[in-house]
Design brief:
Blueprint (H helix, E strand, L loop, with lengths): L2 H68 L16 E5 H5 L14 E9 L4 E2 L11 H13 L6 H12 L1 H5 L35 H7 L3 E2 L7 E2 L5 H7 L5 H13 L5 H4 L6 H6 L5 E2 L4 E10 L2 E12 L2 E13 L3
Parallel strand pairs: 3-4, 5-6
Antiparallel strand pairs: 1-2, 2-7, 7-8, 8-9
Helix pairs in contact: 3-4, 3-7, 7-8
Keywords: Cell inner membrane, Cell membrane, Membrane, Transport
Pfam families: T2SSK, T2SSK_1st
Subcellular location: Cell inner membrane
Length: 333
């Protein structure tokens, strides 16, 4: 008579254990399925974002190509051209509204696209510090003035010049002029720093992130030496580029080019720059046309934003993408 309650208790305990195991296995399976769905959705969103940003880059290349066709007779690039107009943030569905075969009333999350094309030659190219037995005095003064404008620490210009010349020994020694594509100025020395390919990599030379951020509006590191475009450069760069030119003089040139872009440096800039500055306005240092552009595309989806920055070199009607960088950001809500 005492075995039956014991058997019933053991059966109940066994049943509870089996139910617990089944519930645990079911929960694990549901969790794995949920994770698989999340991973698949993330991969799909990443692939879609990549294609959208690639389309934005192709669109920018087409605009630059059309601009080259318009300027075939006289190459002049200025801020009044279509490429210089930024694309304000807009719903991606508005770009698809013209296509009646695409459903634009999907209940899914909205995506927002924005972007811009910036003239890379509106900034001072640090490649000008290379060449010769030592850094050219004029170019070193230019960098010192720009560092002062950016409120960088004293001695920053010397650190940049010394670091670049150590990273590119062939160009610095004079055996190369720093104009090779992709930094093909020769390998760095065994004891020298790595060769930076862009401004962000100046941290390899010992610069902190805040200093690089301060200098970013004024300087750039391109694959080869380039002149500064006086039609697109900010007043700080123009003032730093010449000895004896202050911000007020540079501002007069900036305001004048809005009404009439410069067509020729020697003829048009003479009305705004002193004679000492015109003597330094060689074709290797200043120009009115550009070949390098920075294309930025931003795609905002929910709480995340994917930004892609591409460096494009324009050679005639050919657009070459030299570098591409993607930044995934989590936006604050």
């Amino acid at each position: 008579m005492t075995r039956r309650p014991t058997q019933r208790g053991a059966a109940l305990l066994t049943a509870l254990i089996i139910v617990t195991l089944i519930a645990s296995l079911a929960a694990g399976m549901v969790w794995q399925q949920y994770r698989a769905v999340q991973i698949e959705a993330a991969d799909r969103a990443r692939a879609q974002s990549t294609w959208i940003l690639q389309g934005a880059l192709d669109w920018a290349r087409l605009i630059l190509q059309e601009d080259a066709k318009q300027n075939r007779n006289k190459a002049v690039d200025h801020l009044g051209e279509p490429w210089a107009v930024p694309l304000a943030e807009a719903r991606l569905s508005t770009f698809l509204a013209a296509d009646k075969t695409v459903a634009t009333d999907d209940a899914g999350p909205e995506a927002f696209l924005s972007g811009s094309i910036e003239d890379a030659q509106s900034r001072y190219n640090l490649r000008g510090l290379l060449g010769g037995a030592k850094a050219p005095e004029l170019e070193l003064r230019v960098l010192e003035r720009l560092c002062s404008q950016a409120n960088a620490a004293p001695g920053t210009a010397t650190v940049i010049a010394a670091g670049l010349r150590q990273a590119f020994p062939a160009a610095a020694s004079g055996s190369g002029n720093g104009t090779g594509s992709g930094g093909a100025s020769g390998p760095a020395s065994d004891s020298g720093p790595l060769q930076p390919a862009g401004l962000d990599q100046l941290s390899w030379l010992g610069l902190d992130a805040d200093t690089i951020k301060r200098l970013q509006p004024f300087v750039v590191l391109l694959p080869k030496a380039t002149p500064v475009n006086l039609n697109t450069a900010p007043r700080e760069v123009i003032a730093a580029l010449f000895d004896g030119v202050d911000l007020a003089t540079a501002e007069r040139l900036v305001q004048a080019r809005k009404a009439k872009p410069l067509q020729d440096v020697a003829a048009d800039a003479a009305a705004y720059l002193p004679a000492t500055a015109l003597a330094q306005a060689t074709t290797a240092r200043v120009a009115v046309a550009s070949s390098f552009f920075i294309v930025t595309g931003r795609l905002r989806l929910d709480e995340r934003q994917l930004e892609q920055r591409s460096l494009i070199e324009r050679e005639g009607l050919t657009m070459k993408v030299l570098a591409r960088e993607r930044i995934n950001q989590l936006l604050d809500r």
